[in-house]
Amino acid sequence: MKKICVFFLIVLISCNDRQTIIKIKGSDTEVNLAVNLAEQFHGIKPEYTISVSGGGSGMGIASILKKQADIANSSRPLTEEEKLLFKKMGIELKIFVFAEDATAIIVHENFPVDTIDVPALSKVMSGEYKSWLPVTGKDLPITIYGRQSNSGTHSFIKKKLGIAFSREAKEMNGNAQIMESIKQDESGIGYIGAGYISSETKGVKILRIAERPGTAAVSPLDKSSIKAQRYFFQRPLYQFIPLSSWQKVQTFLQFEKSDEGKAIIQKEGYYIL
To answer: Would you say the pTM of this structure is higher than 0.90?
Structure first.
C-alpha cells in the first residue's frame, strides 16, 4: 500500500513540473525579445522554467507540428500548406498577437543615399539591378544579405515586394550575421528586425522607405508613423499555441499583455498594437 502511495505522489509531482515548463521556438526576429520576456517573467514567477530558441518562423511552426514546443514565435502568418498540415494532424491552434515589428532595410554607414523607394528596392532585391548606379549614381556591384526560406522575415519581404529574391543573395543565419556583414561591405544591403537597431548601433544606416518615387519616405524607427500604419514594412508578431498547451501558457501570455510586459516590448524596439 505504501509503495502505491509513493508512486502516485511521484506522478503528481511530475505532472505539476510539466505544467510549469514552457518551450518557445521559432522566429529569429522575436528571439531576443522572447528571451527578455522569459527572464523577467521567471523573476516574478520562479516556479516557471521557459526555454527559448530561434531558428526561424518555419522551424518554430514545425516544432509545434512535431509536438516539441508549446509556443511557436512567428513573424508571418501560417501558409495554406501549414494550415492543412495542422488540420491533417488534428492539432488545433490558438493565435496570439503580442507585438508589432518594423523590418529595417540596412546598408553600410557610408552608403551615399538615405532613402529608397519600393519599386527601386524590388529591382535591387530581385537582382534586376546588378549595380547601384540607378540608385546612387555609383557603379558598384550590389551584394544582398538575406535569410533562408524558412525565415518569416524572408517570406514577409518577398511578399511585400512581390518578387523572387535574386539567386545571388547570400543566406545568413540571423539578424546579427546580416548586420555584421553589412558593416564590412559598402555595397551590401540587407533586412533585419528594427528591434535589433538602437541609437548606439554603429556601422550601418537604416534606409527610409518611400512607397513610390516622389512620396514621403518613412523610417522604421519613427514611432508616430508606425502607430499610423505608414511604414511599408511593418507587421504583427504571432505566437502559435497548440490547444494542448493553451492553459499552461496563460500566465506567461498575461505577463506579455501586462504593463510590465508592454514596457519590455517597447524598450526592445518593438511596438504595441
So the answer is: no
